[in-house]
Amino acid sequence: MSRLDNCLTAIVGDKLPIETARKTFFFLLGIAVMLIVIALPSPSPFYKGEEAIPLTANAKIVMAVLCFAVIQWMTEAIPFPATSLCLIVFLHILGVASFDKLVTLGFGNNVLLFLMGAMGLSAAMTSSGLARRFMLWMLTKVGRRTDRIVLAFIAIGTMTSMWVTDMAVAAMLLPLGVSILESSGCKPLQSNFGRALMIGIVWGALIGGTATPAGCGPNVLAMQYVRDMAHMDVSFAQWMAVGVPGAMIMVPLGWFCLMKLFPPEFREIPTSLESIRAELNALGGLNTKEIRTLVVFLTMVTLWLGGSNLEPYIGFKAPEGFVALLGFVLLFVPGLRVFDDWKVAAKSIDWGGLVLIAGGISAGMMLASTGAARWLAWGMLSGVGELHPVLRVLAVIGMVELLKIFFSSNSVTGAVVMPLIIALAMDIGMNPWILAGPAGIATSMAFIMVTSSPTNVIPYSSGYFRISEFAKSGVVMTIIGILAVTASVAIFGRFANMNIW
Fold first, then answer.
1. Which of 23, 108, 141, 271 lies 20 to 30 Å from 187 when distance is taken between CA atoms?
2. Side-chain half-sphere of 384: how many Cα atoms within 13 Å?
3. Local structure of 340: helix, strand or coil
């Protein structure tokens, strides 16, 4: 046993398995840190000119509870969703807000309905076979050159994960990629082509998740924080105005990076793509469920992109959450039914993820309303306000990517940093969306650590690349991502209410 194991055994007893002992230790450590922070005297206020920015008693309690949560999120002593529920429990017990208010802020937020509908659409596209058909069709257009195959996998993953969950995209592309590698005689951990292709699957799925609000949970979470804290309305199209160009920049640069780091050992695969063509031909024409899914998908995208411009024609407001809920309901309506019963659809919803986000929203709003977010932002990030707006965006994205190393959840990263960034922007008189939007995109760019996202683990399970190889290439890709998102905001931000010039 290691020295740490011996210490844990001494603290929690020798009758518990070491993993249980570890989790118990970190849970109790979180409680202890929370109580210590509450007991500490309030620090001196920060000053913005002559204006004092104090840390109030309630703000200190919120920060103490957040310290507990961060320890749990970093050590995974208890599941992520359970930690979010603890936030609500402790904030109520310690008198920061009433239980009803905390529940309403989190579970009454329409972002949960948006995510539920988006997950349902993703499941419909997967279960109906529509997403796989699109992938197979795209791959038949590639040819036998290894560099083009890698580029195709990245591009297909990007386009698909704009609307389908990152994990589902990686899971669908993995067997297609492995079949190409095996038929080409590529051995795990020996083939550069295998490394590039498998890492490319990860990157494509992650890049696409940044392009639209439907691509990843933290995206719509960032939009909702801006609405709740800054009282600004951010549309689906505004996100895409910077998200899509950023993704389009990352795809070719990411591909170029992989080709330089892991140059394929042969120019063309020795076998043809006939197996993929045969699989596509075996599907035949679009089946009934695929057609229904396509109709619902196009309806949702039209309403999402049209936004308030469609209100005079349809006679009612159609916010993103409503559109997602409408699409989800349509998947059960006779004539459009894709899911045979509720249980099938329910399995596609990440209920734990929804709970995680609900608790995070409650805590985030308490950070804002008690002044804790403003105090933290001014203490940690006030120097950002002295930079040129473009450099502010660059600095914020870089900070988020640094935090990504420590948090193995995109939503957790968003819940922690978003209130601080919005508070900072409001304090320095900057449009909060200019910083919150890029930060939201950055929370999904989990390029460095395999453990940062379940999406990364799926291709890693194929055995074609090492963790160190993923991290090495991921550092380069993270730099590319930071520059790409900053460039997208600088060039296309004026179309998304992000004018920084």
1. 141
2. 28
3. coil
**From first to last of its 501 residues, what are the pLDDT tens digits of the chain?**
555 555 545 545 555 578 888 889 999 999 999 999 999 998 888 877 777 888 899 999 999 999 999 899 888 899 888 999 999 999 999 999 999 999 999 898 888 888 888 888 888 888 888 888 888 888 888 888 899 999 999 999 999 999 888 888 888 888 888 888 888 889 999 999 999 999 999 999 999 999 999 888 788 888 988 988 888 888 889 999 999 999 999 999 999 999 999 999 988 888 767 777 888 888 888 999 999 999 998 998 888 888 777 888 888 888 888 988 999 999 999 888 898 888 888 888 888 888 988 888 898 889 888 988 888 888 777 778 788 889 999 999 998 888 777 766 777 788 888 888 998 888 888 899 999 999 999 998 989 888 777 788 889 988 999 989 999 999 999 999 999 999 999 999 999 888 877
Contact between residue 473 and residue 479 where contact means Cβ atoms under 8 Å apart: no
Q: Are 471 and 197 in contact (CB under 8 A)?
A: no
Q: ∠155-156-161 over CA atoms, to 5°?
A: 105
C-alpha to C-alpha distances, 458 to 158, 172, 174, 447, nearest whole angstrom? 16, 10, 8, 14
| Residue labelled with tokens 């609307």 | 163
Nearest to 72 by CA among 63, 61, 81, 83: 83
Instruction: Tell me how far apart the alpha carbons of residues 159 and 161 are, in angstroms, rounded to a whole number.
Output: 6
Q: CB neighbours (10 Å) of residue 391?
A: 12
What is the C-alpha to C-alpha distance for residues 207 and 411, in angstroms, rounded to an integer? 16
Closest CA to 206 of 399, 459, 392: 459
Where do we find the tokens 């109030």? 56
- The rounded distance, in Å, linking the Cα atoms of 30 and 275 is 53
β-bridge partners, 47: 52
Tell me the residue length of the chain: 501
DSSP code of 78? S
Q: What is the DSSP letter of 215?
A: G
Q: Cβ of 209: how many Cβ atoms within 10 Å? A: 33
Distance CA 326, CA 249 (A): 33
Residue 284 phi/psi, 5-degree rounding, is 70, -155
